[in-house]
């Protein structure tokens, strides 16, 4: 997290800010995922309620015989910066050292809304280019009539997202034909 720029070490606990604890949980791949306990901070956040339209949009866009490409944005929330004056509210301790998040951590009550609001104009631009897609937080489902078109559009979309500062998790990117035996879309 530190080497990726998601958090910065500070010399002392925050003054006039908020302090949370961080712990590690095992991941399926054997690594460890840092989890910050933001329960107390979240009780002070009035996170806007919003509806995720992913599955409803999918029903209106999906056509018989479409090829699908599922893209996953890696560490999606971490790509959204936090202003310097608000970082003191996202302070935490780990192994007797103090840190502040420079970006939206997972578990922050407002993070899904902020991330969705950030991606909405990007999705609108992509749709104006004739690409059919559905967003659901950090998952993107692209639909195209042919395998080649699906691959080409996915390649262009990955490039565009990378230019905008997002990282696509290539290991989780999947190309699927809905009529095949391997067909699945997990949302």
Task: Describe it.
25% of the residues lie in helices and 25% in strands. With 187 residues, it is α+β, with helices and mostly antiparallel strands. The protein has one domain (7-176): Reverse transcriptase/Diguanylate cyclase domain (Alpha-Beta Plaits). The strands form two sheets. The chain has a five-stranded mixed beta sheet. Strands 7-8-4-9 form a four-stranded antiparallel beta sheet, sandwiched between helices. Strand 5 (91-94) and strand 6 form a beta hairpin. It is elongated. The two termini are 27 Å apart. 23% of the residues are buried.
List the helices and strands and how they pair.
Elements: E1 7-10, E2 19-26, E3 32-37, H1 39-42, H2 54-61, E4 67-72, E5 91-94, E6 97-101, H3 111-128, E7 132-136, E8 139-144, H4 147-163, E9 174-176
Parallel strand pairs: 2-5
Antiparallel strand pairs: 1-6, 2-3, 4-8, 4-9, 5-6, 7-8
């Amino acid at each position: 997290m530190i080497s990726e720029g998601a958090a910065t070490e500070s010399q002392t606990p925050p003054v006039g800010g908020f302090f949370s604890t961080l712990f590690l949980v095992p991941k399926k791949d054997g690594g460890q995922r840092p989890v910050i306990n933001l329960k107390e901070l979240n009780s002070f956040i009035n996170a806007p309620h919003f509806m995720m339209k992913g599955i409803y949009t999918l029903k209106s866009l999906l056509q018989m015989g479409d090829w699908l490409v599922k893209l996953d944005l890696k560490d999606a929330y971490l790509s959204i910066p936090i202003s310097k004056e608000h970082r003191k509210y996202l302070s935490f301790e780990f192994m007797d050292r103090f840190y502040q998040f420079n970006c939206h951590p997972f578990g922050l009550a407002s993070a899904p809304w902020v991330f969705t609001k950030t991606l909405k104009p990007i999705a609108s631009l992509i749709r104006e280019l004739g690409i059919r897609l559905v967003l659901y937080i950090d998952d993107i489902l692209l639909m195209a009539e042919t395998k080649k078109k699906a691959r080409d559009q996915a390649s262009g979309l990955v490039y565009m997202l990378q230019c905008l500062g997002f990282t696509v998790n290539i290991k989780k990117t999947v190309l699927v034909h809905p009529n095949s035996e391997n067909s699945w879309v997990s949302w």
